[in-house]
Prior knowledge:
The complex is a heterodimer. By secondary structure, chain A is α/β, with parallel strands linked by helices. Chain A folds into 4 domains: 6-107, Helix Hairpins; 124-251, Rossmann fold (3-Layer(aba) Sandwich); 257-415, 3-Layer(aba) Sandwich (Rossmann fold), CATH 3.40.50.720; 434-562, Alpha-Beta Plaits (2-Layer Sandwich). Helices cover 51% and strands 14% of the residues of chain A. Chain A contains 24 helices and 18 strands. A 6-stranded parallel beta sheet of chain A has the order 5-4-3-6-7-8, sandwiched between helices. In chain A, strands 11-10-9-12-13-14 form a 6-stranded parallel beta sheet, with helices on both faces. The radius of gyration of chain A is 35 Å and the shape is flat. The termini of chain A are far apart. Chain B is mostly helical. Chain B is 77% helix and 0% strand. Chain B has 4 helices and no strands. In chain B, helix 1 (3-23) runs antiparallel to helix 4. Chain B is elongated and about 50 Å long. The model of chain B has no long low-confidence stretch (mean pLDDT 89).
Amino acid sequence: MTPTSDLDRVTMIVLRYMRRPLFVLLFVYSVGIIGMALIPGRVVDGEATHMNLFHAFYFFTYTATTTGFGELPGGFSDEQRLWTIFCLYMGVIAWFYAIGSLIRLFQNPNFIQALDEFRFARRVDRNREPFVILCGFGDTGSLLARGLSDHRMRAVILDSDPERIKALGVRDYAVAMPGLRADASKPKHLLAAGVKHPACRALVTLTNDDDVNLKIAVMARHLNPRLRVICRSTSSRHEATLRTLDNVTVVDPFEIFAQLVCRAIARPDLHNLNSWFVGAHGVELGVPVQVPRGDWILCGYGRMGHWIHHHMQAQGIRLRIIDPDAEASSVGEDTPLIQAHADRTALQAAGIDDAAGIVAGTNRDSDNLSTLLSVAELNPETFCIVRQNSHENQVAFDAARADLVLQHSLTTARRILKLLISPLVQELIDWLAEGEPALTETVVERLRAAVGTQPPHLWSVRLNPDEAPAVTEYLDRDGAIALGPLCRDARAFPQRLPCEALAIRRQGRSIMLPEPDDPLEAGDEILFCGVHWVEHMLQATLHNPYTLRYVVTGVDSPRGYVFTWLQGERKVPGRRPH
Amino acid sequence: MNLERVVFGFFIILALSLNYAFVAGGVEAPAHHNVWILTLAIIINLVATGLKLGDRSQTGALLLASGLVAGLLLITARVVWIIVESDDGGPPDAGGMADIVSIATGALVANIVATVILVGDTLLSRR
């Protein structure tokens, strides 16, 4: 059996629907035209005239479509007029039937779906820009698509919910984001979305169903083993399976969220740096939120609660847990558990008066918001971290009195975006998390000196002939370039551009916080953080050999052959160093 | 200040000026156009193109291309002049003159492009 393509299916459906109407039209036309040609016309010079076949076809065409130009090319006989009446009614009925069938065809859901799939596959296939496949366009998916659009990265979107694909149609993305309503776990749809496309950079599975995510990840691995897969997973059983596959990154939204909450509590300086990097609203670099020390109350002990508990214990922070359904055995002996909803009595029982802070982390926004209200009444001094579940409730959470609002779809989308756009950023953050707080202080100081109060812009540069032809050429011919000279401002030599190199990735190893004297090598990937316009300035240096030579040596070398020769002549007799 | 930039700018702008000096005037009036200015414009253009050789930057490539276009068109104009010149050494007739001037105007556009690139590059580098 030969595989059928989408185009074959479209053709097949059109043929099946239109076969009968087309036959009816053909029949009516044939009968009408032949009849018109056979029936005698007006008598001229004692002999009956006949319409020829072409004139009969011409007449029938304008009659059947109810245009009715009149009796052309000449006047008709009565027999012909009788036949005309027959032709008119038959023709009109045949046409209405054909048009009705056509309209029914266009409304046929199978036809629409087949046509959509065909168009989608063609759009993906013709695309030459690098892109990411997003399976699942929920809260996280749409936030991720927005982030990708901000970075001018294309995405191809699959979602089984037609409403979500309709929502995609009304977004104003800066780049093309084709979407299709389809079950992404079917290999056919993954192929249409470009799993094997040479420009496909990664596949991200974000559906709410862990089984579906696992299925998509496994399918994609089989279809294209070299493709990078980022998979959302909340179940430890699936995670174990996924981690055995190489090229697959598992992203657990609850773990990321818990990690963020604990970092915000234990390492406010790092949390501040991280939020500044991702451009969170109202964050000033070097001014971390002051989080009090002491015991914390955690409301909600589901999957996320477990992760928060786990991370908090690792940081040595004691918790008191409020959850109506939690088992005392799952919490552990040294952690107090109140088995109730987080209302006034439960909060008082958990000791809200002497708690340092509270994490309202249930999976219902209304519960979290009402907990906030109770806390504000009982102990307004308490530090409040609240979990926002639905993106739609943004306004309510903005208005609530919380010290930190964390939305897990947003934190997940940001983490995946970092993995896709600049994986070095996450590596740097993790490296800083393991190191001493003084290290973070150094980074913050350096960034403050370079960028100041302006919003940060993160980008990475690969020192390869495509992205930095001047640098690779210089390294080949003239020798070493250090990081510091590369970042000089060609307009105001030897001042530095307001940017800071945060990390270098070299042959699979990462060098964090490189010094200005560190030499560069061809193939390095450098992560920069700076003011927005610096990227363009630096790009000029990386592409133009003369600008590069100038920032590295401070000498404006001659450009044309004539002046190169002249300078050589001038130098040799005098032997003066330039 | 860089000596190379001075010399380079001098020749590029001189080529543009001479080209304009030749083209200015009535299209069909031989009295408005001097064959010496045309010849000089060709020489200056060739010198400017020679100075552009060897620049490996993107703007350098564009400058070289515009220089080649201007040189090609000006030389064509000079060849047409030789062909349509009357046998007694008198100036070309109105039709021939119109051809020569329109070709030289094309070269003027290429020279304007070169000057714009030069000025733009200098302004953008701002040093």
